[in-house]
Each structure stands twice: as C-alpha cells, then as structure tokens.
Amino acid sequence: MALAPYASDPARSRGRRHPEAPAPTRTEFQRDRDRIVHSTAFRRLVYKTQVFLNHEGDLFRTRLTHSLEVAQLARSIARPLGLNEDLVEAIALAHDLGHTPFGHAGQDALDDCMREHGGFEHNLQSLRVVDELEERYPGFNGLNLSFETREGILKHCSRANAQRLEAQEPGGVAHRFLARTQPSLEAQLCNLADEIAYNAHDIDDGVRSQLLSLEQLTSVPLFEHHRQETLREFPDLQGRRVLYEAIRRMLSEQVYDVIAATREHLHQAQPVDADAARRAGPLVDFSPAMRERSTQLKQFLLRNLYRHPQVMEMTGAAKQVVRELFDAYMDEPARMPPDFARREHTARAVADYIAGMTDRFAGREHERLTGRRALA
Predict the structure, then answer these.
(1) Residue 61: CB partners within 8 Å, gap ≥ 6?
(2) Which domain does 36 fall in, by range?
C-alpha cells in the first residue's frame, strides 16, 4: 500500500546515530523492528508484568503480550490512514523495553530511589536501552535505531532530561519537548494504541482475577453499551464469551473512531509531509465523545482495579523489593555483575541493572540478598 504524503517515509529517514550501509532487502524501519525483536530486552518482557505480578497467574498479560497487542491495534489503524506500518510496529514493540519489573510499582519505587541521582523515567530508560545498554554489535553500543523509531520510543520526557538529551544530540529526539512540537503521526498512533490496549486487557485480566465483576462493569458506558448489544444479538450467551465479545466490539469501535477522527484532523490541517504533521499539533486522537468514554473507563479501572486492596498489597511488596535491592547494590556494588559494578556512576548503574530484571529474577535476587521472601 502506498504511503500518504504525511507518513514517515523510510527513504527520507533522518538516519542513525552511527551511519550504516542500507540493507539490501529491508527498509530502515523494517530493520529497526527486526533488531528490536532480536534484542535481549525484548525477550525479558515475557517475564515483566502489567497489573498482576508474574507469579500470580500464567494467563495475565505481560509486557510482551501487551506490546504485541499494541502493535496489532496500531497496524490496524495505520493501514487505512496510509501511515507506515513498519515504523508503527517497531515503536509499539519497543515502547516498554525500559520498564522495570513489577509494572508501575517498580517504576515508582526506582524513581524514588533515584531522586537524588536524576530520577528514573521508563520512557527515557527505553531509549537508553536501545541507544546504550544493548550489546550486540561490534561498532557501537545499543541497537543504532533510526531517528523516527527512537523519537517514538521517547513518549514522555521531563524538561530537565530533554535539555540534557538536547545538549548531547542537538535537534535530536528530545528537541520536540523543548520546541513543543509533536512526534511523527506513527508515534502519536502508538501512544493512543497503547491506551486502547491496556484499558481493554485490564478489563479482561481484572475479571479473570475476580477483582472485577461483570456487574461492576455495567457502570462503564463504553463497555456496557457493547455488552447489551452482544446480549441482544446472542441472548443465550453466558460467562466469558460475553466478556470477550463485548471487549472485541469495544476495541473495534475505538479503532474506527480513531480512524474517522484522525482523517478529519488531517483534512483540516492538510499536512504536506511528515514534518508538517509534526508542526500541526496532535492529529491522531479519539473523537471528543469517545475520549470522554475512554476517560470514564480509565477512572473506573483506577478506582476498582489499580487501587483494589489486593493489588495495593502486592504493589507495596514489590516496591519494597526494588527499594531493598537498590540499597543493597548501592552499599556493595560488587554484588552486581562486573559490567555494572565497575561503572563510574554507581546509582545509574544500579538503576540500569534493576530496570533490566524480570519479575521472577528480582524476587529471587531479593531473597538471595536479604534472606527473606517478600513476594509469596
């Protein structure tokens, strides 16, 4: 399928930090995707969790399955809009590479530990993984991805970190946070697909865990509309089939809404190329009505799932694991592998090491160092 004028064209990529000869059979963005899939950090995502920790059940989403779902949703939206599907897939598969073990609980704990050392941002860590921490090639650190993929990975960035990155790479991937422009349309799309994916699968995982019930979900307009529609069409349907069908229809409506709303925004803005789209403000979005219903769903999940006493109890234990690991390595860096222990900046080395851990490795390492099992 031909790309739209405002799509990111791999032939016009802003290139890689370390120049490389082009691949004979792949575009630059296809090459990025392949490097991400073969990376160590990508494989680790299978044992890093979303809401439920890895040992709590085999069927809950992990960072890996979440990333695959984001990629699928993003490609489904990219194609009818004429955007670059390969770039969308690369960004989606890489967007969580820097996430800590134990989901947002681990991130919050590590950020708190790093407060006096520059803090911790998982989007910035994802960029750090692909720019520095992966060790696969003889000529450079990291994966040496294209500018456009790196730009999409850096979804959020504090002003202080943006200024630091801009000093290192003038006009680079952090410049937009200072100039107040947008990333590519493909990156905007991945941000929204991420939101759509986790809202839907957190409903599924919440019901599977029995922390949420179908009765509770009747208060969520976006879900309840599709549950009722499902039962009108299939009045004898029961149990998980009702849940799955309602979620499937909810996802489809959101996908079609994004396509229609974005087409309208593009029609109004008339961007002539990818850079014009960056200057035009946010263009990939829900319609106002769908944005309101999506917000209602997020608020419901916050109240009833993310702040559920059982989740909060496990969140507290996970934060304790991260804090105690951080303290142990700071007190005695030699407890880390030599590549981390001998680095000049100990706190950042500790953060890199902990952020790269899977849930189960972090739990085992904590038990080894403290003699206590914090996660039952």
Answers:
(1) 49, 50, 51, 52, 69, 201, 202, 204, 205
(2) 26-206+242-370
